[in-house]
Amino acid sequence: MTSWFAPGRINLIGEHTDYNDGFVLPFALAVGCTATVAEAPSDWSVRSAQEPDPVVVRRSGLADAGDVPEWTRYVLGTLWLLTDRGVDVPPMEITVDSDVPTGAGLSSSAALVCSVVRAVDDHLGLGLDDDAVFALTRDVENDAVGAPTGGMDQLVSLRGEAGHVLLCDMRSHDTRPVPLDLAGRGLAVLVADTRAPHKHSDGEYGARRRGCEEAARILGVPALRDVSGADLADALGLLEEDELRRYVRHVVTEDERVLAVARLLDEGRLPDIGQALTASHASMRDDFRITVPEVDTAVDALLSAGALGARMTGGGFGGCVIGLLPEGDVEGAGDAVRRAFADAGFGEPSLFTATAEAGARRV
Ligand code: GLA
């Protein structure tokens, strides 16, 4: 039997930059998923502590995969893709158990995929290197599940380090831990899970991605990462559609904010990053247009209650908001978010603080 744990994540800053080959600055959470692989007499079976029924399928590649519940595609996807790549994957039973809230934008799916890939690689002694493991986790989500995501979530779930955010170059996939010394500066990251339903989020996510790729094509660059801040005005002048102009402005300025925040953290200036966090939120709200009233309300409440900066984190259209706050203001800020939600007639949000923890590990 082989067990691996992989965590969920929060993105400190850098939203919708990953599939534009840009930069992101996420950190791994304490919550995550544990996947256990054991030998089985025949077939592949998948069980989850959070689902009532196990699923048993015959061994196959992706093309011959039958209709299975969506959550199992994140698990079986690993086995299908390995089979397609010529690995003779034996019968096995995979059990998963996760405490990452689902639908909150905290990457419960990355925790699931990364724990499974690590456990299967280890159990079978495949010896995949770090890059191959990451590539497989991304392929499972893109090809076996069909979610056109950019890879940030898997990268930080695999490589996160305690007490650090991970500066990720999403073109080279080089990563560098950058200190996030919250306790040393008397600060905390307060998370408000708005519990706003993620309606149409998949379609909207794909539409943003296609828009960014279309803009890169018109501008004649491989990806929007190749448009610098200095080139932005010229680039905007070449685009006729307002929607594409807004997308480009978000991505180019967001990449700059990520690098600016990483620099400030390297210099030990954690309290100074707040402005960039709040500017990132404004860019997601006004230019990229991926926020909803619940997340905007939570950000405003956090800022009024003393947050140094606040922003939505993750893909958008609901999910979680983070605020960087002096430790002493955390409780009052939580109350302020709850009050603002009650006044607006929104459902009760869930509030908790988050620290940066280690990435995937054998357990
Ligand atoms: C989701 C995706 C990531 C990334 C973010 C937005 O979390 O899985 O790849 O694109 O949205 O930054």
Automatic annotation (TrEMBL):
Residues 74-160 form the GHMP kinase N-terminal domain. Keywords: ATP-binding, Carbohydrate metabolism, Galactose metabolism, Kinase, Nucleotide-binding, Transferase. GO terms for molecular function: galactokinase activity. Gene3D superfamilies: 3.30.230.10, GHMP kinase, C-terminal domain. Residues 263-342 form the GHMP kinase C-terminal domain. Residues 4-38 form the Galactokinase N-terminal domain. The keyword Ion transport does not apply. The keyword Transmembrane does not apply. InterPro entries: Galactokinase (IPR000705), Galactokinase_CS (IPR019741), GalKase_N (IPR019539), GHMP_kinase_C_dom (IPR013750), GHMP_kinase_C_sf (IPR036554), GHMP_kinase_N_dom (IPR006204), GHMP_knse_ATP-bd_CS (IPR006203), Mevalonate/galactokinase (IPR006206). Its EC number is 2.7.1.6. NCBIfam families: gal_kin. Belongs to the GHMP kinase family. GalK subfamily. PANTHER family: GALACTOKINASE-RELATED, MEVALONATE KINASE/GALACTOKINASE. This is Galactokinase. It comes from Nocardioides baculatus. The gene is galK.
